Amino acid sequence: MKGISVSTCFDYDISFRNQLELIHKAGFSHFSIGSNYSHSGILERKNLDEIKTMSQENHLSIDTIHGYAMDKEDTVDINKKLAEAAYALNVPVIVLHCSPFAFNPNTLDERKRDIISKLPLFENLAKTYNVVFAFENVLPGAATDLTEFAVNNSDSKYFGFCYDSSHDQVDGPHSFNLLKRNASRLKAVHISDRIREFVDHVTPGEGFIDFEQITEIIHSANPSFPLLMEVMTTYSKYKNADEFLSVTYKEALKLYNKINENKHSF
Question: 235 to each of 24, 206, 222, how far by Cα in Å?
Answer without folding.
Answer: 23, 10, 32
